[in-house]
Amino acid sequence: TPALSLDLPELEHGGLPAFSLGYFKGYARATSLLCLLHFMMKRGVIVVMEYPMFWDSVLRIRVHHVKTQSRMSEALTNMKMSCKGSVRKATNTVQCVVMLKSLMTVGVSDPMAFVKQWNAMSARSFHISGKRQVTLKLLLEIAPKDILHHVQSLGWENSVWSDDNLSTKKLYPKFLQFAARCKAWQQRLRTSEESMALA
C-alpha cells in the first residue's frame, strides 16, 4: 500500500504528492524509468518542455493494488505471476534461495513449508522437487555467498551453475571425496570454498 512520505522531494511541475511504494511487479521497469529521468535531470534536460509526450506518459503510471496477508503469501503470489506469459521468466533456484533468506529475516522459520505451499499452488512443471529441491536445500544451508552473487550478476542462463551440478554434495565446502589414512590428506581432499569456485 502506498504510504505518504515527507522525506521525498515534490515534483517541480505539479503532479501527485510525494509517496513511497512497495513494488510487487514492474520494479525493473520503474527503476529504469527513474534512472532515465535522473540522467535527463543531471544533463539539464527540461523533460516537460522538450519531451511533452514522454512527460505526459510519466505522469500517468497505472498501478493495480494487490493486498496480501503476509510476506510469505506476497512471495508466493510474486512467483506465480512470474510463471505467467511468454515474456516473464519463472523464478530460478538461486532467486528462490535469496527470497527464502529474505523471508527468514521476517519470521518464516521453515523454508520447506514455503516449498510445500508453492508446490500445492503451482503447475507441475514449476514444482520445486527432485534435483531442484536438493539444490535449494544445499544452497540454503552450505553454499558460499560467491555462488549466489555469481548467478545474480550473470543470470541463471549465463552462469556456470545449473540444478544438475548444484544438486551434488561433492561440489560443496567440507565434503570429503574419500577417506585417507593420513589426516593431512583428509584436509587436502576436502572441498573448500575456493575449490568450489574453481569448479
How does this structure look, described?
With about 200 residues, the protein is mainly alpha-helical. It folds into three domains: about 5-60, no CATH class; about 70-165, no CATH class; about 170-199, no CATH class. It has eleven helices and two strands; from the N terminus they run ββααααααααααα. The chain has helices at about 25-40, 45-50, 50-60, 70-80, 95-105, 110-120, 130-140, 145-155, 165, 185-190, 195-199; strands at about 5, 20. A two-stranded antiparallel sheet has the order 1-2. Helix 5 (about 95-105) crosses helix 7. The longest helix has 16 residues, at about 25-40.
Write the layout of secondary structure elements.
Layout lengths: L2 E2 L14 E2 L6 H16 L4 H4 L1 H7 L12 H12 L10 H12 L6 H11 L9 H12 L2 H10 L8 H4 L16 H6 L4 H6 L1
Antiparallel strand pairs: 1-2
